[in-house]
Amino acid sequence: MKQAEAVVYVIDDDSSVRTALRSLVRSVGLEVESFASGQEFLQFNRPDAPGCLVLDVRLPGMSGLDFHEALVRNNIPLPVIFITAHGDIPMSVRAMKAGAVEFLTKPFRDQDLLDAIHQSLDQDKTRRQQEHEISELKARFSTLTSRERELMALVISGKPNKHIADAIGTSEATVKVHRANLLRKMQAESLADLVRMAGRLKIEQTF
What is the pLDDT of residues 36-63, one digit of tens each? Predict the structure, then answer.
């Protein structure tokens, strides 16, 4: 199945601003969805595709800054670009500390917003690719037996087969068999490749 194209989400309570931003984003060939409030956005069934959020700081009810922080807490990791007509330094600092990609004060140049959008979409594509790769590694790791997992911790530490055999109470020949199975199941082409995989899994797995 072909993955959906990248989508730019706009949240602004001013309909004229939403119209202008939709027109701008579409002018460079990008998909765009717009909403009058954060609640509308949350109720929208977002496609499984890279995206970013262009968010007004001042919204009715929950402010854009509070909404962004709520997204972070709820593990909705869309890159955010803030736009505002009433920005100040403390506001921009708070936004950037929460992980915003950009904080633009109106009137801003169209190109500045488009540059921030492209940067944000690239960032989200990278994140999604990394998450896919980690998911693949976790799936491979789940196929290992308990002995192979034990062996993996010893193999990636660089211990020779003889030392590994002594450590787990088996023969060097058996270690070689387990090691070959380990590399095959993890789809590692070399010890260095296996070490790299272990490093990427260290947050999720304790070796």
Answer: 999 999 999 999 999 999 999 988 888 9
Q: Structurally, what CATH architecture does the domain formed by 7-137 represent?
A: 3-Layer(aba) Sandwich (3.40)
Q: Look up tokens 């002995």; give the residue.
A: 147
Residues 6+ away with beta carbon under 8 Å from 42: none
For the chain, domain boundaries: 7-137, 143-201
Classify residue 87 by burial, with Cβ atoms within 10 Å: 0-12, 13-18, 19+: middle
Residues 14, 104 contacting (CB under 8 angstroms): no
In this predicted model, what pLDDT tens digit does every residue of 95-140 receive, in sequence order?
888 889 999 998 899 999 999 999 999 999 999 999 999 999 999 9
Sheet holding 102-105, edge to edge: 31-35, 7-11, 51-56, 80-84, 102-105
Q: What is the pTM of this model?
A: 0.78
Supply the CATH classification number for the domain 143-201: 1.10.10.10
Which residue would you say has higher pLDDT here, 87 or 124?
124
3: left (phi over 0), alpha (psi -120 to 50) or beta: beta
